[in-house]
Amino acid sequence: xxxxxxxxxxxxxxxxxxxxxxxxxxxxxxxxxxxxxxxxxxxxxxxxxxxxxxxxxxxxxxxxxxxxxxxxxxxxxxxxxxxxxxxxxxxxxxxxxxxxxxxxxxxxxxxxxxxxxxxxxxxxxxxxxxxxxxxxxxxxxxxxxxxxxxxxxxxxxxxxxxxxxxxxxxxxxxxxxxxxxxxxxxxxxxxxxxxxxxxxxxxxxxxxxxxxxxxxxxxxxxxxxxxxxxxxxxxxxxxxxxxxxxxxxxxxxxxxxxxxxxxxxxxxxxxxxxxxxxxxxxxxxxxxxxxxx
Length: 293
Ligand SMILES: C[S@@+](CC[C@H](N)C(=O)[O-])C[C@H]1O[C@@H](n2cnc3c(N)ncnc32)[C@H](O)[C@@H]1O
Fold this sequence. Notes:
Strand order of the largest sheet: 1-9-10-6-5-2-3-4
Bound molecules: S-adenosylmethionine
Structural class: alpha/beta
Number of helices: 9
Order of helices and strands: EHEHEHHEHEHEEEHEHHE
Helix content: 25-40%
Strand content: 15-25%
CATH topology: Rossmann fold
Largest sheet: 8 strands, mixed
């Protein structure tokens, strides 16, 4: 019997192994972070939406709730990964208990912090070892709104081998909600909210001067009620950031359950006050992102 010729093509032979070495793909990064966009799916922990909800404050790796008014470290973790590279210098103009500095060390960044209260600077300095306080963390006791703060920041930048900072954090007092000191330079001691905005603008301008072009700034702030009226401090400060030269990039709403102790205990009282006074209880604050273009 004649063998029927198959319609199928002959099985292809295995490709010869040419032993060509595969060159590894170069990381695809932006100039302001270390995120490799070739592998962008490998960063599921980085938030990219405008609603941030954290269940509890991170109290590990040197962080604690030792200062009424400190921000939760998860904010710095998110911002540093997104807007800084390893070794970059973060400038925080309201250093407080040093959350920005602690997280800078944890994430191999560096930090310069300005804080008005000497006793707080002394306390926070103890959180870092002597070598770190020269090479990686520099704390200045001074007034962030003053005209001479730029020179002091420049001195520290020079010690750290940089002309400018690569990220700016502004976490000012929320007007007079918490009184941080009796000092007249303290933004929590302004006679009026308009005065608060004016001083804040001075700080924003000083920060703008020290920031590298193309880099980002974060403003962390909440609003307030006083005498039956809502004061949108966040949007007031946003406008002053724009006046100082910053371009607005994002407005993020963040829950504040993690920050607050007192309101939890008095939840019923606040609810009664809200129903009585015709207002709503704050459950959020803002993280606003800006760029120096
Ligand atoms: C909201 S707290 C910042 C807390 C800080 N982010 C933290 O996590 O600990 C604001 C801080 O700004 C400081 N401050 C107020 N006015 C200032 C000024 N003119 N210059 C520098 N610091 C100032 C206050 O003493 C206070 O510690």
